[in-house]
Design a protein that fits this description.
This protein has 456 residues and is an alpha+beta fold. The chain is 16% helix and 37% strand.
Length: 456
Amino acid sequence: MHLLVRETVILPRYYTMLLGAFLILFSACGEKSKDNKDLDDKIIKNEKIFPEFVESQKLICDTENCPEFLTKITVITPKSIRYCTGTLLTKNLVVTSAQCLPSNMRAAHLRCDNSVFFTFAKTSGAKAQTVGCNQIKYADRNITSDPALWSSDLVFFKLSQSVNRLTPDLKDDPLVVARDARIWKLNYIDELTASITESVCDLAGRNYLYPHNNTGFSSMVIGSNCGLEKEGNLGAPIFSGDKLVGVYSVKERQRLLNFLKIKGYIEDDKVSFEYFSRLTCSSYLFDGHRHKPSYCKSNISFDHLDRRRSELLAAGSLHSQSLEDIRNELETPEKYFLWRVEFRKNRRDNSIEVSMGRPKCIYNSANWIWEFKPSRRSIYTKGTVKIVWPNYLVKTKLDSLLRPYSEVQQYGQKNYSIEFNPFNAHVNGNTYTKITESIGNYSRNPIQYLDIKTCN
């Protein structure tokens, strides 16, 4: 069955009576109630009700300058009715998330005459229209469970006939971060009617959820708190500036966010993250035209994904500035020695502990040797000095877009007891040091360093 492009009209009286009975049972979208499930079964199985249900789908513009390209997609299968959001790319091509379709429909060249329908809103430049589907031109299948392993998540429909509406321009240059990216989505009032609404969210390039590509670009991008929780939001288009970036695919599983909170990488596990499939990385759009952009990711394995996530958290350059700041603060002459900072890495949580290492040299002994002279003619051969340092711990944290950054935390202080030979240090310009580190009531075993010489 091919539905013709039509204007919205007042239904005949017998249609109105029939649909009036439907509306009593319709409720707001979300989890379908048993009544709605029973209604789905009646619509699917009743040859008379089915076409009137499709023809009565409505899309309402509730905001100024509603986009003409946005479409409400109704997918009717032998078992269910589902709704998604689509975007008109050309006069007869619509794209949405492949998650919109059941897995047995994600196949190229599959006919969709009696299963997929597109409803367009009346806008300032276009009339309300309902259009049938001719064919599924291309669909990603994505059999793995983690969307970070997907290289794309799109389905393209050929309409039963052309639609004369404005279409968006694609953003074909790499996107790293976009603040306040715009999303056009549908708010479902009932199973017949939806309205167009707009929201914003932040887009990240390379982050913990999607750690591909050293350049920071990838074929899917992550959004933060985009407000896409409701049924029918799948496929909602997202824009950076006035250019179409991609369409909403799937929400990140809460289990991974809980893990990051337990490990101390994030403070709040109640935030939400959404995957958007970048259109310029679609195999279908570039087949026979030009190669995919270099920033588009190829498929990788679970092992590679885990490795890249670990590498992102343990990046060598991540803490470079923090460590340099700590060196500048602590590696200073403090009366007896010019100290050296030692960084000890904890591989379990990618944290770095700051400790006192081998002294660089004996500093200006003439200013302090009198402390170790019991008389004018003798100098102690064993002396002890006490030094206090802040107990710094450098940790990897993830920001609101799950991008890693370095954070220096202080947990009280560390006390050092340094044993050495004051006589050799002052007279011969050479000494040993035995350093004992303690935090509260806990002390580490002393570490001895030999042949500490005078600073030049």
